[in-house]
Amino acid sequence: MRRDAFSRALMREHTLLPSDLVMVAFVIEGEAKREPVPSMPGVDRLSIDELLKLAGECVRLGIPALALFPSPGQGVKTEDAREAWNPDNLMHRATRALKARYPGLGLIGDVALDPYTTHGQDGLIDAHGYVMNEPTVEALVKMSLAQADAGMDVVAPSDMMDGRIGAIRDALEAAGHIHTRILAYSAKYASSFYGPFRDAVGSSANLGKGNKHTYQMDIANSDEALREVELDIAEGADMVMVKPGLPYLDVLRRVKDAFGMPTLVYQVSGEYAMLKAAVQNGWLDEQAVVLETLTAFKRAGADGILTYFAVDAARWLRGE
Ligand code: PBG
């Protein structure tokens, strides 16, 4: 069966398509600005006008959605992260601009406080630096409502607080945002693969030697991932996510098998950086190796894949 292309094609179990991909973008203030992220060669932080060009390319390529991460300046960061629900913040201006120009492109908004806190944590901290669950959930609810008001299609809490999916769902319903979908980062690990992302959104200096071990999952666990996913589904999540990707394919498979939910996976910044570094050294064939990783996510049960390679991969898949 492996001898000829025709028989290989007939027994192929999974086919990667541009419609499986979600592009990830970092947004900055300004005009006609593209700021390279040094630890992510090929990824730029984009001002809103540049972001619109990227969105147009996603639409052309058949990429269904764009996940937005703001990289606001240090000037707006506070202890209480109040910029996160400012109706006119960078994220909301980007959302309105994108929805006006490309209404059919799905927009996924990150819901976590880390771009907006002076300490770089995803939540609000007490005097000892411990991230407090309940006050953080209140803040995340305000943030989700503000994003929905701006036109965000999907709010995606990436903070790992307990009970936030239910609280956000109730608040969205009460405010009449009955169509806003919730993508829960349900099994998000306290991974060392997020370093380049923290550079990109400008939170690494704020976080300093801090870590997120008191709320993100222990890398050694996978039964716990199932418990987290189960809670988020019960609280009203429409989609669940496993993150990071490649080192957690076992978790992805278990989650998909256990719940059969729309299950997304995030090929995170460190995975991107690792592949790019090898490619830039001429050690790996970029197109082959990137498509292999993305196909592996589908094989392991992913319905959708957030990846910084989405635009490149969609071009390759279309033979461009
Ligand atoms: C934080 C957030 C992180 C990522 C997405 N949202 C980093 C973190 O938890 O510190 C990581 C994404 C990536 O590494 O590409 N809310």
Automatic annotation (TrEMBL):
It comes from the Eukaryota. Its EC number is 4.2.1.24. The keyword Hydrolase does not apply. One of its GO terms (molecular function) is zinc ion binding. It is an enzyme of class 4 (lyase). SMART domains: ALAD. CDD domains: ALAD_PBGS_aspartate_rich. Pathway: Porphyrin-containing compound metabolism; protoporphyrin-IX biosynthesis; coproporphyrinogen-III from 5-aminolevulinate: step 1/4. It catalyses: 2 5-aminolevulinate = porphobilinogen + 2 H2O + H(+). The active site is at K188, K243. Mg(2+) binds at E228. GO terms for biological process: chlorophyll biosynthetic process; protoporphyrinogen IX biosynthetic process. Keywords: Allosteric enzyme, Chlorophyll biosynthesis, Heme biosynthesis, Lyase, Magnesium, Metal-binding, Porphyrin biosynthesis. One of its GO terms (cellular component) is cytosol. The keyword Nucleotide-binding does not apply. Catalyzes an early step in the biosynthesis of tetrapyrroles. Binds two molecules of 5-aminolevulinate per subunit, each at a distinct site, and catalyzes their condensation to form porphobilinogen. Homooctamer. Belongs to the ALAD family. This is Delta-aminolevulinic acid dehydratase. It comes from Dorcoceras hygrometricum.
